[in-house]
Write a structure and sequence with these properties.
With 287 residues, the chain is an alpha/beta fold. It has one domain (12-280): TIM Barrel. It has helices at residues 34-46, 59-62, 71-81, 85-97, 109-118, 133-141, 155-167, 192-199, 215-221, 248-265, 277-280; strands at residues 7-9, 12-14, 21-25, 51-56, 101-106, 123-125, 146-149, 172-177, 204-208, 226-230. An eight-stranded parallel β-sheet has the order 5-4-3-10-9-8-7-6. α9 (215-221) links the parallel β9 and β10 (226-230). α6 (133-141) runs parallel beside α7 and α9 runs parallel beside α10. The longest helix has 18 residues, at 248-265. The chain is globular, with a radius of gyration of 20 Å. The two termini are 38 Å apart.
Length: 287
């Protein structure tokens, strides 16, 4: 395989030769409360997130009511949590003023175009949408980086999605993900990161739905170049992803532990380092 590629997200470089990019997924944990979303943005930035991820959508077009009865509940909730376009534009403006680098998960063509106009540095393709080739082609048309959440996909489905994006000259980050909310840690399958690294020469990351801070450092040790965690300022809220999302203090802990792991991993070269110098005198080299 050729050397692994690097993806450019605003001022950040995502790849093996760069610090792991840590993404706070704000999603719809605000539950439609504009003031709460402002506070979420501020606290995610203060806690050390490199990038913030939003969701941009129109509730009535996000799911098909006719084919899936369960979609009705999702649509009703998403409609309650949906910001107007004007509100969302002001939220992006606020985030940018705080120095945040923002991208989003759009769920339809109009939302993708709207987010592009707001200055998104890239797009996230939700796991549900990997097989929605019409949307994938829309994202490819912008030529910006796309983070693919690989939850629920077969390799054939993931390959087809990556191909469409590459044909649009999009850079790609493939995020290992298990589509369970929340996810039990024993089901994390972190070794999938190795499998994805063997299959693709794009950076591989991990979108983690477990509770707490344990899995991200393991994912980095396995070769992840991006970590995404759902973020909240109030895990006691029972709706959306709040109950299993990380708090600002947990985000700080993840940043600290990921940077620790990066320092422990080293450069992979075989070389005699200063810490070994004393013991070299004890070697016995024989023919």
């Amino acid at each position: 395989m050729s050397p692994r590629k690097t993806v450019h997200l605003g001022p950040f470089h995502v790849g093996d030769d760069y610090p792991v990019a840590i993404v706070a997924e704000l999603g719809v944990n605000h539950l439609g409360d504009y003031g709460r979303m402002i506070e979420m943005i501020d606290q995610a930035v203060a806690a050390g997130a490199d990038l913030l991820k939003f969701q941009t959508y129109t509730a009535e077009t996000r799911y098909d009511r006719g084919s899936n009865p369960k979609a009705n509940v999702f649509i009703e909730n998403l409609a309650r949590w949906e910001f107007t376009r004007d509100e969302e534009a002001r939220l992006w403006e606020h985030a940018h003023k705080q120095g945040a680098v923002v991208f989003t998960s759009p769920f339809d063509a109009d939302s993708a175009a709207f987010a592009n106009g707001l200055g998104t540095v890239g797009f996230k393709l939700a796991a549900f949408e990997v097989v929605n080739h019409a949307l994938v082609r829309v994202l490819a048309s912008f030529g910006k980086p796309v983070m693919i959440s690989r939850g629920m996909t077969s390799f054939e489905e993931l390959d087809a999605c990556v191909k469409i994006l590459e044909e649009g000259n999009c850079e790609v980050v493939v995020l290992h993900c298990v589509s369970s909310y929340p996810l039990m840690k024993r089901d994390s399958n972190v070794r999938m990161i190795h499998t994805l690294r063997d299959r693709y020469d794009w950076p591989i990351g991990h979108s983690d739905h477990t509770r707490g801070c344990d899995i991200p450092p393991l994912a980095v040790a396995a070769g992840a170049s991006m970590i995404e965690k759902h973020f909240t300022i109030n895990p006691k809220l029972r709706e959306s992803d709040n109950p299993f999302s990380i708090t600002p203090d947990e985000l700080r802990e993840i940043v600290f532990r990921v940077r620790q792991v990066e320092s422990y991993l080293g450069n992979g070269d075989i070389e005699c380092i200063d810490a070994e110098e004393y013991m070299r005198d004890f070697r016995r080299q024989t023919a």
